[in-house]
Amino acid sequence: MAFIFTVVALSSWLRLTLALLTPADFKGIGGAADPSFFESVVEFPPWLASLTQRTSWPTEANPPFIRTPGLDLSSGIPANPLHQQVTACVSQCSFDCNGCLGPNDIAACSQLLQTFDDGPTDATPALLDFFKSSGQISSFFVIGTQVLAFPDTLRAEHQAGHFIGSHTWNHPYLPSLSNEDVAAQLQWASWAINVTAGIVPRYFRPPYGGLDDRVRAIALKLGLMPVVWAHDTNDWRMIEENRTENQTLADVQSWISTSSTGVILEHDRAAITVNTGMKIHQMVGQQRLAAPACKNAGAPWYQ
Ligand SMILES: [Zn+2]
Question: Is 281 known to be catalytic?
Answer without folding.
Answer: no
